[in-house]
Automatic annotation (TrEMBL):
<protein>
    <submittedName>
        <fullName>Bifunctional diguanylate cyclase/phosphodiesterase</fullName>
    </submittedName>
</protein>
<feature type="domain" description="EAL">
    <location>
        <begin position="1"/>
        <end position="254"/>
    </location>
</feature>
């Protein structure tokens, strides 16, 4: 209960912030997008990771206003970077299942894009398999309406959820994000390598892009390059950074080496 009360206060007190992690093109090494990752800077608890408060926020309904804040802030920040003359990159935002079930989600997203002046083609929404599989017919409609605006859709943590491969065909998707549990031992575990190889082949045959999560070593990256993975994300390039540090990373040219 103390946590619930503190969380409700946190939004009012502006204790939330976004960190940003680059998404990198495997072939060129260029930063092509970034993912916004939520953090709670709690005066009592210190920096709290989302795993410790997203679930509770969903239970108490806070995820709707909190998710709205995340989307606005991510779009506002991305537009500010664009207006400051930085490269126009895509900003990825994670969506909770609860947000996805809001009937007016596509209209809400459209309103935020309009309000912040950000182009729909610069927004990416990340949803997990379970989010879309909860009610596939409804999900297909929502994804259609988001996609029709020009928004990029990614499936997060791909391979860990309840996978019915038929949904890959039904849903309007752009990118599969290979969960980092398959990437970790890719160079030593033949099964993991086979899974990653198969997911890449599947994605490409369905004209989807594929990004590997949790890339920490040059060896993992070399394997992914060999397997034809399009993009990667992970500590090898950068951990998620506060806005000022992320901007410095982009400006340093580390963006396109
Ligand atoms: O950033 P890591 O930084 O610890 O994120 C852990 C988990 O929290 C990830 O699965 C990520 O999808 C989720 N997460 C991070 N930011 C957000 C957010 O803004 N909204 C939702 N719903 N989940 C988030
Ligand atoms: O939304 P998603 O489930 O993809 O959240 C990404 C999570 O992965 C965040 O918690 C982020 O901090 C974490 N992460 C990003 N890069 C790496 C990495 O290279 N290694 C590990 N172990 N975690 C990572
Ligand atoms: Mn994500
Ligand atoms: Na993920």
């Amino acid at each position: 209960l103390a946590l619930e009360r503190a969380l409700r206060q946190a939004l009012e007190n502006q204790e939330f912030e976004l960190h940003y992690q680059p998404k990198v093109d495997v072939a060129s090494g260029a930063v092509v997008a970034m993912e916004a990752l939520l953090r709670w800077r709690c005066p009592q608890r210190g920096m709290v990771p989302p795993s410790d408060f997203i679930g509770v926020s969903e239970e108490i309904g806070l995820i709707i206003p909190l998710g709205a804040w995340v989307l606005r802030e991510a779009c506002r920040q991305n537009r500010a970077w664009q207006l400051a003359g930085m490269a126009h990159l895509r900003m990825a935002v994670n969506l909770s299942a609860y947000q996805f079930r809001q009937k007016d989600l596509p209209e809400f997203v459209a309103a935020v894009l309009k309000e912040t002046g950000m182009d729909a083609s610069c927004l990416e929404l990340e949803v997990t398999e379970s989010v879309v599989m909860h009610n596939p017919a409804e999900a297909a409609q929502i994804l259609d309406r988001l996609h029709a605006q020009g928004i990029h859709i990614s499936v997060d943590d791909f391979g860990t959820g309840y996978s019915s491969l038929s949904y890959l065909k039904q849903f309007r998707l752009d990118t599969l994000k290979i969960d980092r549990s398959f990437v970790r031992d890719i160079s030593s575990d033949a099964d993991d390598a086979a899974i990653v190889r198969s997911v890449i082949a599947l994605a490409h045959s369905l004209r989807l892009q594929v990004i590997a999560e949790g890339v920490e070593t040059e060896e993992q990256l070399a394997y992914l390059r060999e397997l034809g993975c399009d993009q990667y994300q992970g500590y090898l390039r950068s951990k998620p950074l506060p806005a000022a540090q992320f901007e410095a990373l982009l400006r340093s040219g580390a963006a396109d080496t």
